Amino acid sequence: MAGKEGNLPAAMRLGHDHARCIEEAMTLAAELCARRGARLTELRRAVLEFVWQSHAPLGAYAILDMLSAEGRKPMPPTVYRALDFLLQQKLIHRIASLNAYIGCIDPGRPHSGQHLICRLCGTVAEVDEEAISGAIAASARDLQFSVEHQTVEVTGICVNCVPD
Amino acid sequence: MAGKEGNLPAAMRLGHDHARCIEEAMTLAAELCARRGARLTELRRAVLEFVWQSHAPLGAYAILDMLSAEGRKPMPPTVYRALDFLLQQKLIHRIASLNAYIGCIDPGRPHSGQHLICRLCGTVAEVDEEAISGAIAASARDLQFSVEHQTVEVTGICVNCVPD
DNA sequence: AATTAGTACGTTATAATATAACATAATCAC
DNA sequence: GTGATTATGTTATATTATAACGTACTAATT
């Protein structure tokens, strides 16, 4: 057996090399923006890096505070504009049920991710299951509903927060 | 062929008898609360009825305004408490992506509903597809994630808002 | 390197959503 | 009816988000 961490997403593997998560996310973001002619400015880079500091989503005002602590003193619109840019570039997701933002684990590929949110540790794991998105698409088709965006947010207790 | 309104949920059938939607919802709510020993007070009843005025979700402050127009002059906590009660009794759902509230179409049966939200007319149709909730449950099981709540909100264009 | 068009950011103010904390009133169980 | 419980009223404030307008930076072209 591979143990309980066998095939889990990084977010739910306690000992994972998170510095590498951040580094990969930042490198990929830079590449994608360059390819798209989108400007990943210092501010936007800083916001994205803060969002990636953990696998728990971060609120806009938490980001504001972190930027303030760094010496910048941005006002809310500045942060929201950076977040809007990152959302447009699909570098982050907004978690509607938490009013907070989290890094996208696979910004290069078009996808409608699903998020598993641990109520105890706050960790959010993104998965992309065709079985889920396909079932939603099929149900919408039955109703002749033209889907633009799927929000799937599953709240519960992650493997690290339940007794074995 | 039954036409485009063949098997659609009431929310998406333009000519449906909405007075009956309201009446059935209110009757069922009264029955369920009685059965559970929960107090469906006048205020809570009024809030539920406002939520059911249409198949588009209603914000807390819109409800506040409607109560004010009726002569009551409640403050926000009063409305939020009524909404909390209705949420606990599963008589309404909160649509996280809209910060708004909508009547539950089947409060008697335990279920995790999915919501299709039309970006144009605001109508929200609730469906309960085992294929969707099952796929989510299966994915969570893979990750040893214990699910407490599923939020599925699908944004797009409903059948009444697209050209034929 | 100046011009300019477009984009990004700064700043002020305020809107929209939600809750904490405590007081009063209604209802229920006995 | 008395006391316990639940519901609502009230004041104040927290949290999340955006409108509107001004300034500065960037990139492309001359």
Commentary on this structure:
2 copies of one chain form a homodimer. By secondary structure, chain A is an alpha+beta fold. Chain A folds into 2 domains: 17-107, Orthogonal Bundle (Arc Repressor Mutant, subunit A); 111-164, Dna Ligase, domain 1. In chain A, 40% of the residues lie in helices and 18% in strands. Chain A has 5 helices and 5 strands; from the N terminus they run ααααββββαβ. Chain A has helices spanning 18-36, 42-51, 60-69, 76-88, 130-142; strands spanning 92-95, 100-103, 114-118, 124-127, 146-157. In chain A, the strands form 2 sheets. Chain A has a 3-stranded mixed sheet with strand order 4-3-5, covered by helices on one side. The interface between A and B is large, with 41 and 41 residues. Strand 5 (146-157) of chain A pairs antiparallel with strand 5 (146-157) of chain B, so a sheet runs across the interface. The structure holds a DNA duplex (30 and 30 nucleotides).
